[in-house]
Amino acid sequence: MKQLIACSLAALALAAPAFAQPAGPVQVVELFTSQGCSSCPPANAAVAQLSARPEILALSFGVTYWDQLGWKDTFAQKKFTDRQWDYAKGLRHDNVGTPQVVINGRLDVVGRRVSEIEAALRSARLAGDGAAVTFTTTGAIVTGAAPRHAADVWLVRYDPNIVQVPVKRGENTGKTLPHKNVVRELTRLGEWSGGPKTYAVAPAPTGLKSAILVQAGPGGPILAAAKS
Question: What pTM value is reported for the model?
Answer without folding.
Answer: 0.89
